[in-house]
Amino acid sequence: MARTVRPRVFVTRQLPGEALGRLSRLVDLSVWEEELPPSRDTLMAQAALCEGLVTLLTDRVDARLLDCAPNLRAVSNVAVGYDNIDVPACTGRRVAVGNTPGALTETSADFAFALILGLARRVAEADAFVRAGKWKTWSPTLLLGTDVYGATLGIVGPGAIGAAVARRARGFGMRILYVSREPKPALEAQTGARQVDKATLLAEADILTLHVPLTPATKHWVGRAELAAMKPGALLVNTARGGVIDQDALVEALREGRLGGAALDVTQPEPLPPDSPLMTLPNVLLAPHIASASHATRGRMASMAVDNLLAALEGRRPPHCVNP
Ligand code: DGY
């Protein structure tokens, strides 16, 4: 970067891989080294000094923060989702916003499928059972689960990750249904998936998997009415955002046994409070928002985020820019 004064950049956590080393050679870099995110006050104070921010989904970037950051030109999120960022507010202040699509598609789909299998075949319960010394003998009725092979998978949001889950489902001989505004002919040709309306999806899916971004339109997409319309005993898997499900309604449906179980990589809030009923329900499989957490993928995400940031600081449109 041919400048005498290097732009100041704040990164809200250490990132894996080579990306921050590369960034440090080009900008005046400050990295938050703690395990927990910087406080709101710290983030605002840093934003006030910086031309660039590299953020995670834990860091809220809103109009109030932007108003304190007159020199800010770029916010680069290390995630494909960017519901933590007020994009219109950024656009209005000519702040570019970047994200990391593509980098995590297959890794996230692997994990969604791991949750599908883990929930249906009760893997975490089985592990806990053995470790607790409860295993006395082989039993014809021990820890019976649901077959994934041959089951109907309902996909909400057949974008890149949803489609990657569908490809895995095809290998398991699943029948695949999806809801979407647009038909997806390539997905249908590749996986045999069929577009249906919401009512059909809810009524026919044995396993429902969520892959939509969190927006006002998708908030509580799975609410009380949807849970009531689902097939009795169906399984629900969420690797999207916690807010896509009405969690109180979910707890009710699980407690009443209407829903067979839920596997949640994402919740509202994150982390869940220790007294959340989800923590004690046996038919719930929980993970700490790690669908994209492989060494290679997290390194790729960091690298893409740095590429986006550097482009914006050089006055170019970031390669992955979510501003209109
Ligand atoms: C994302 O990228 O939005 C995931 O939730 C975290 O990798």
From TrEMBL:
Q: Which Gene3D superfamilies match?
A: NAD(P)-binding Rossmann-like Domain (3.40.50.720)
Q: Which PANTHER family match?
A: 2-HYDROXYACID DEHYDROGENASE-RELATED, GLYOXYLATE REDUCTASE 1
Q: In which domain of life is the source organism classified?
A: Bacteria
Cellular component aspect of the GO annotation: cytosol
Family, as annotated: Belongs to the D-isomer specific 2-hydroxyacid dehydrogenase family.
Q: Which residues form the D-isomer specific 2-hydroxyacid dehydrogenase NAD-binding domain?
A: 113-291
The protein's GO terms of the molecular function aspect are: glyoxylate reductase (NADPH) activity; hydroxypyruvate reductase [NAD(P)H] activity; NAD binding
Q: What is this protein called?
A: D-glycerate dehydrogenase
Oxidoreductase as UniProt keyword: yes
Q: Where is the signal peptide?
A: none
Q: Could you tell me which residue ranges the D-isomer specific 2-hydroxyacid dehydrogenase catalytic domain spans?
A: 10-323
Record's keyword terms, sorted: NAD, Oxidoreductase
